[in-house]
Amino acid sequence: MKCPALWKLRRGEIEASLLHMCHYLVHFDASATTTSMQRPTLLIASTNQGKLREYREILGELPIDLVALTDVGITFEADETGTTFRENATLKARAYAEASGLITFAEDSGLEIDAMNGEPGVYSARWGNTSDYEVKHRMILDRLQAVPWELRTARYVSEAAIVDNSARVWNYRGTVEGRIALSPSGSGGFGFDPIFHVTRFGCTMADLTAMQKHAISHRGRSTRRALPRLRAILELAESARD
Q: Which residues contact 155 (CB under 8 A, 6 or more apart)?
């Protein structure tokens, strides 16, 4: 499906997205740990391959080594007992920073649907007692079958948390508004993207290219807001080594 209003994407947003995606190429793999003596290392506290791919693209600007949990031998799942995205992101960042000894970036995100009283919300990953997002899509569309278009409002929420080597925590929030589509569309992205209709562009998040998605997405926004702090923390870590 062609997105009819993508041409409206502002030039500044495209330039910002390109700046954050294309300056450096960063890989998530075990080899990243071998260069940690030359550059600071940032742990991305996730095993979600979709999120890891997006962070590789969004944080590609930074001259750092990005490592995932599996790269540093962490196999346990941090408790996500919070009632908000921010609480869960902070719990994950603290737990994995303590376990790894690394500067850690964690995130918790999900979909809030107004006609479903905010569900799936903080339980998005576990909602419906399934990890199959096609099943989740069908469940949501079935529940909203009688809900008119104007009442199908929803938003993606992303809360990012950074923990530095002194155990200090910083939090950053990003959101994007939209509606739940009448049917799935698109092959890009992951999660709820095929049913999240971005009103501004007249198509779903899954219909956007990676660059277009990062320019307006909840995760792109929370991460860009965190970038100045990340740069400052990583520069201090590099200076300390020198």
A: 111, 112, 175, 176, 177, 178, 218
